[in-house]
Amino acid sequence: MRLGSKIGLAALAVLFVGSAAAYRFVLYPEQATLDFSAGTGPDPKLPAPNATLVPTVNIARAGGWQDGAKPRAAQGLAVEAFATDLSHPRWLYRLPNGDVLVAESNKPKTDHPSTGLKDWVAGKIMSAAGAGVPSPDRITLLRDRDGDGKAEEKHVLLKGLHSPFGMVLVGSDLYVANADALVKVPYTEGQTEIAATPEKVVDLPSGINHHWTKNVVASRDGKTLFVTVGSNSNVGENGLDKEEGRAAIHAYDIATRSLRLYATGLRNPNGLAFEPVTGALWTAVNERDEIGSDLVPDYVTSVKEGGFYGWPWSYWGQNVDTRVQPTRTDLVATAIKPDYAVGTHTASLGIAFSKEAQLPEAWKSGLFVAQHGSWNRRPKSGYKVIYVPFQDGKPAGAPVDALIGFLDADENAQGRPVGVAFDKAGALLVSDDVGNVVWRVTGAERTQ
After folding, report:
1. pLDDT tens, 390-408?
2. Which CATH architecture fits 6-443?
3. Pairwise CA distance, residues 111 & 198, whole Å
4. Overall pTM surpassing 0.85 (yes/no)
């Protein structure tokens, strides 16, 4: 999430000098005029853009959980810690034997060369939000040997990676999406440490790495890997030549070792999952910033092969972003409207369909979405896990809060949800990179 205006950032930088309290300030009086719910659903309201001189900055300072505090689950659900004392846990993956992998990771330093004041200020903002810690660059294995809902064992399965994020097992190969490449290592069921050096499968677009996270899932036949690559900017301000192969989902053919574009115009796709009724690939996308607290809604959508979703020239279909010049009317005319908005600036990341969940009936036919939380919306948005009900393979109803309380009474971030996955017992796992916890959500009457 790069801040855009150099003039605005220069003014913003003054407030960081000599005053830690400045991080709490909202640095421009712009704020949302619509109810948050207006930016959700299949047809969100899209007001006129409000591009202010100084970007709206409304940061939830990262503090962590104190004195046994924890998130609050919705009625009918319960939450407890599955694993604690992790180091910036980002993404989750469950192995066939029930072991849970967690990518402990953060932005790579080497892929973000300084470009002056603009990057310095952006770095200060991200640090205040909890994203400034060094990357542990490892995958940790969590094992709940006795089935009590807590991981008694914690092992470093694989280390020496480069800002790892997505993981998927295909046959006996464990694939990991690093910030700059897809790699693989041999895996044997039950092992707790992999000593093999990761083999590079294919390079992935990197460099400035405005968005560094790369996710990966395998097709159901195990022949194709789908890999997400976010944009290198907010709306192309670093130059469109820096966006080659970015803001896209790629398809990697395992047999031919070839990588091709699968869908484009997706500013920052993260979560990937297959809808269980139709088999369609779905993703969660972080949309653009700096045109007001009411724009643009982040979204979840089915992904059409060869589809173009607008970025950077348009949003939510054919709504033109005039900041991007020259315009591409030919591309805008083909832009696909996403399926379902999940609110503006929520930073929605992980997604998981709940068909395999062992949860109350009200939570067993939909999509869980982890919302990492806003930095540039007033009032704040996200900082929770929501549930989108589905029927016949499509969203069917308003989003429901499943896990909240990540902000304290002073709107500091006790935690920030990132990844979601289901454990072998059908409970929902949620990684929390500020609280350094993996949470486990069950039915209120069920603790295991």
Report:
1. 999 999 999 999 999 999 9
2. 6 Propeller (2.120)
3. 20
4. yes
